[in-house]
Write a structure and sequence with these properties.
The protein is an alpha/beta fold. It has eleven helices and seven strands. Strands 3-2-1-4 form a four-stranded parallel β-sheet, with helices on both faces.
């Protein structure tokens, strides 16, 4: 049964357009209030250390913090084998473009047996290593600085053991305090002219391993090599999941067909095999956030 065709006269069309514009204006006003609230939160801090990963959330937080605090804001990026070289370079580029004081500090979670064992609370140990570095910076600033990370309200619904580490250390979540969702962060970033506003979500390379699979620097490097292949080929949304001799590639739904093309498929196969994987597979479900939590 087909739906009846509904014809609207000019008055009804005009009313619908006005209602839609009113809804857009209300959403814009709401975002303006959130941005103003975030600025007020940050202005109330003596100094701030932002855990900076070069993702959309931490970039937006850093931008606003630099606007409000200037030199009293420091971006801290933890460098370890789980951070791809291209993301490290991206962090340096973005921080420089924002005029932020940016520190790269080596973190040692890869030497922590509890982290290497890759338990379901692995992120707790990773974030603890980050906050250890932040505490060192706080000590240098005589304890005046607060520490914040770019958590948004959507993150509260996911499996995030790192929250516990943040809670134990008194780390702030200014975006949550100002009620920013991921959509809010992207739109606010677009307004501020941040070129990462539509950047695909990214998580550290350790998230590519099934829980219970040991994480080593050598395995992380192999995964990074394969993800670099996909990045170099122009794929936007991707994850390379480690399963021993098997690598399972997740791509955005609209990118799967391209990966199977005669021009692209052989490149992926040859370069991933050169990274040490015996079998190269393409996940038919495509990329989905937190698939290792399944």
């Amino acid at each position: 049964m087909t739906s009846p065709l509904i014809l609207l006269d000019d008055g009804a069309v005009s009313f619908a357009q006005s209602a839609l514009q009113a809804e857009r204006d209300a959403l814009a006003d709401d975002l303006d209030r959130k941005i103003a609230h975030l600025r007020a939160i940050l202005r109330g801090m003596d100094a701030l250390i932002v855990g900076f990963s070069a993702g959309v959330d931490s970039t937006f937080l850093l931008k606003v913090a630099v606007d409000e605090l200037g030199e009293r804001c420091t971006a801290l990026t933890a460098v370890s084998p789980s951070l791809p070289a291209r993301e490290r370079a991206e962090a340096q580029r973005i921080a420089a473009s924002l005029g932020a004081r940016h520190l790269l500090r080596e973190s040692d979670e890869i030497h922590n047996p509890k982290y290497r064992a890759n338990p379901t609370d692995r992120c707790f140990h990773c974030k603890t290593a980050l906050f250890d570095l932040a505490d060192q910076l706080k000590a240098e600033a005589q304890g005046r600085a607060e520490v914040a990370i770019g958590t948004n309200t959507d993150d509260l619904n996911d499996h995030r053991p790192g929250f516990r580490a943040a809670q134990e250390r008194g780390v702030r979540h200014p975006l949550v305090e100002a009620a920013f969702s991921k959509k809010d962060v992207r739109e606010a970033s677009r307004r501020l002219g941040l070129d990462v506003w539509d950047k695909a979500e990214f998580a550290c390379l350790s998230s590519r391993f099934p829980y219970g699979t040991e994480i080593t620097a050598e395995r992380l490097a192999r995964v990074e090599t394969c993800e670099d292949v996909l990045h170099d080929l122009g794929f936007r949304v991707f994850r390379v999941r480690y399963h021993g001799e098997v690598v399972r590639i997740e791509l955005g739904e609209d990118e799967v067909e391209r990966a199977l093309s005669p021009e692209i498929r052989p490149v992926i196969l040859s370069r991933c095999k050169a990274a040490g994987f015996k079998y190269i597979t393409l996940d038919m479900q495509g990329y989905r956030r937190g698939s290792m939590n399944e």
